[in-house]
Amino acid sequence: MDVSKGGSWYFGFNMAGDISEELVRGREKLFVDHFMRREKVGLFESNSVSDADIEFYARALQRPGTLRSSFSYYRTLPIVRSDNSVWGQTPLPMPALAIGADWGYGAASEQTLRRVAKDVQGAIIERCGHYPAEERPNELARWIADFLANTPSATHPAQRKVQ
Q1: How far apart, in whole angstroms, are the C-alpha atoms of residue 12 and residue 2?
Q2: Helix H or strand E segment including 80
Q3: Of 74, 113, 126, 157, which residue is least crowded by CB atoms under 10 Å?
Q4: What DSSP letter does each residue of the chain carry, written as one string?
Q5: What are phi and psi of 74, to 5 degrees?
Q6: SS (H, E, C) 107-128
Q7: Which one, of 149, 96, 150, lies nearest residue 123 by Cα?
Q8: Nearest-CA neighbor of 106 among 88, 84, 122?
């Protein structure tokens, strides 16, 4: 999160408080388009998200409270980091799936999850940037469905005994 140490500038921008919302308000399409189509860590194929998709996200950000909510995700990161240092001392016992994208942050989510979980399955979606749900939704759904289908769970319908 620290730009001086190689972190991305937008973490600080998004954490800056009311000024973030004021600078983006009325420019939501420009904001969304920039992050989707930026050179690094955006989309692998810039045309995989249409202008109509960009407009959809921009309209969503125009709804009351949505910009604040989206920026609040970043504003809580220092708290989350602190919480994770405490909660992460007891590794998650259940299987976990970490999905990355080869043109996004790659295996970073898997590496992060391995610090706090005992049983991690990593997946990389190829030819994909930072937004697998938008860019490769079928592959993302397949990874999730396969993981759930092959993960024993007391609450998974396939694992319940029918009486």
Answers
A1: 8
A2: helix 77-87
A3: 157
A4: --GGGT--HHHHHHHS-HHHHHHHTT-HHHHHHHHHH-TTTS-SSGGGS-HHHHHHHHHHHTSTTHHHHHHHHHHTHHHHHHHHHHHTTS-EEEEEEEEEETTTTTTHHHHHHHTTEEEEEEEEETT--S-HHHHSHHHHHHHHHHHHHTS--TTSGGGSPP-
A5: -75, -35
A6: CHHHHHHHCCEEEEEEEEECCC
A7: 96
A8: 122
Contacts of 32 (CB under 8 A, 6+ apart): 54, 57, 58, 61
How far are the Cα atoms of 81, 91, 99, 106, 120 from residue 113, in angstroms, in the given order? 13, 10, 10, 13, 7
Q: What does the domain layout of the chain look like in residue ranges?
A: 3-78, 90-152
Q: Does the pTM exceed 0.90? A: no
Tokens of 132: 């697998």
Tell me the residue length of the chain: 163
